[in-house]
Design a protein that fits this description.
Two copies of one chain form a homodimer. By secondary structure, chain A is an alpha/beta fold. Helix content of chain A is 43%, strand content 14%. The first copy, chain A, folds into three domains: 44 residues, 434 Repressor (Amino-terminal Domain) (Orthogonal Bundle), CATH 1.10.260; 130 residues, Rossmann fold, CATH 3.40.50.2300; 130 residues, 3-Layer(aba) Sandwich (Rossmann fold). Chain A binds a DNA duplex through α2 and α4. Chains A, B: GO terms for molecular function: DNA-binding transcription factor activity; transcription cis-regulatory region binding.
DNA sequence: GGTCCGGCGCAAACCGGTTTGGTAAATCTC
DNA sequence: GAGATTTACCAAACCGGTTTGCGCCGGACC
């Protein structure tokens, strides 16, 4: 394989110096029309493109940001990535996506690696790496935006407010006349379940209704978990006319169990989910659920990071809440 | 912001030359235990990590490959990306993901940009860019693996065989005693519909059954398309006991129409899909469909590219078929 | 006609690493 | 104990660009 054309090759063919080629292409200093024409012709002939490693090395800017996510196959993150990309593209920036696929060690490895590659900024959603450790990895030389619930004084932060969102879903059920509302999903201490549960509680208390312990059923985030939990509740003869689920998969499982027991959704029991996964609109009945606004979160992260990189934004780190949006469909 | 530590800083603190630091860290030449200890101490103290731009520039290798995909929010591609990543990670390579989000110009821009960033290899799935153009963008200096149906003499190729897969799904229906099988989906000439249709035809003809033109219904790839097509067929009084759909969304739409008409799935009409999207297992009844083996395709792409990069594989470009896998669930 | 100025181009330094060639000291060989 | 070899290190070249400093040239101005 022949190697790629270098700027020296262009200079030789155009009959000018490397400097002049650089200036002709960047416009940093004026160049005669004649020289520019010769340079452009040579560039075309050789199919020349600058080696961005060299450019980045010299300029100390790579026009690249990294987005470190826990799992690229979780549809939330690709949608965030698209938002990020749309927010930074016009400024001439690129995003590179790193998925740790649930591996804790790889979170740190990716961050370190991306800093080594001299990215101009980082967006990170971390499951397991403590904030202080991230600090040491980044070294304070690269601006960081934290996506998600992690609180760490290393950069701006963008996150949702599950509590408020679930409270809104619960109030939606109350407005529709449901009074015996159950909560299903999310083992205590695992993931976002607790804040979602507290949103449910807030809404009930706010409406002057009691929290009935039997109607708060904790289970994992799977379809099977939701199905088993609701089936058990029905078997136990519990009485409820609506279910607030901690996530969509659990809600789909809940509907499975209701269908199996001959209860109509939403007529006998209304069901709400959380996440608004693709399948939410595809199942029957279509799921009323909370859209976590992945794309918007991405654009916010991208804009924020860009402002830090350019210095347009300085001062204390900001904390931006992107509230969820209740998506009313058929199930509630 | 203070700038990051450089190798010269490490050398100074350790009291040795830059050369010795490099050798101590890379092991390319022997270094005394004493010097190594001092270097490692200084590295730790300064939290030093090499600037990969400089390393890549000098070594002319970046240990990075790029994966250019048409749409990161199509779950197929993230799963492929995971496969690629798993295949190359142990060799010390990284993958950077570029999504063109359906924009044709950006396909070319990304490829050009990644070549400019001196990636060691490319995996591309192109919707619109012609092969020869890609050739000129890459310049023949970087190995390429083509994912998908594009035929271009610029690199190895990894793709499915929709025709064979759909034929298998159709034979599955025949084995279950279905005889009047319809095909629904995919406008002619758009995407993979034609090869899928021909698999359906192959299977019927192979079983000695005629192709009934009325039972071949072309529509777009959406849920609405499938629903409208099947609703119209039912209205027209067409008689069929199974439907082979060109994709899962269309199949879900088909089931919508069957449900609305009071036909039971699969008892009255069996339905198969294609893609095995997440929702396929979440809808009711769960969809029997063809898994396009995204992860496996990713690992194959990754391994192939790696072999080209290392020179382990040379000679004519290979064409590897990753056959789909029929995933039998409830709908057929 | 000399001075000043702007336009234009080149040489050289620089970014931060790796790699090569050379050398001084230590060790081996006979 | 002289010569050969090895060990351990360093200086300098190099990767491919950008940027800086300087000189040359021609035209305008006094």
């Amino acid at each position: 394989m022949p190697s790629r054309a270098r700027i020296a090759d262009v200079a030789e063919i155009a009959g000018v110096s490397r400097t002049t080629v650089s200036h002709a292409l960047s416009g940093r200093r004026p160049v005669s029309d004649e020289a520019r024409a010769k340079v452009l012709a040579a560039v075309k002939e050789l199919n020349y493109r600058a080696n961005q490693l060299a450019v980045g090395l010299r300029k100390a800017r790579t026009q690249t940001i990294a987005f470190v996510m826990p799992d690229i196959t979780n549809p939330f993150y690709p949608m965030v990535a698209r938002g990020v990309q749309d927010a930074i593209r016009d400024a001439g920036y690129q995003v590179v996506v790193c998925s740790t696929d649930g591996d804790a060690d790889r979170e740190a490895a990716f961050i370190s690696d991306m800093v080594g590659r001299a990215v101009d900024g980082l967006i990170v959603d971390l499951f397991r790496t403590p904030g202080e450790y991230v600090q040491s990895l980044v070294g304070g030389h690269t601006p960081v935006v934290i996506l998600g619930p992690l609180k760490a004084p290393i950069g701006d932060r963008v996150h949702g407010d599950d509590k408020v969102s679930v409270a809104e879903a619960t109030r939606h059920l109350l407005r529709r006349g449901r009074t015996r509302i159950a909560f299903v999903g999310g083992l205590p201490g695992v993931g976002p379940a607790d804040s979602r549960l507290s949103g449910y509680e807030d809404a009930l208390l706010g409406a002057g209704l009691p929290i009935v312990p039997e109607l708060v059923i904790r289970c994992d985030y799977t379809r099977q978990g939701g199905r088993a939990a609701v089936a058990a509740a029905l078997d136990a003869g519990l009485d409820f006319d609506a279910i607030v689920c901690a996530n969509d998969l659990g809600a789909i499982g809940a509907i499975d169990a209701l269908r199996a027991a001959g209860r109509a959704v939403p007529d006998d029991v209304a069901v709400t989910g959380f996440d608004d996964i693709d399948a939410a609109a595809l199942v029957h009945p279509q799921l009323t659920t909370i859209d976590n606004r992945a794309y918007e979160k991405g654009t916010v992260c991208g804009r924020l990071l860009l402002q830090r990189i350019t210095g347009e934004l300085t001062g204390p780190f900001r904390d931006i809440v992107v509230p969820g949006a209740l998506n009313v469909r058929e199930s509630a």
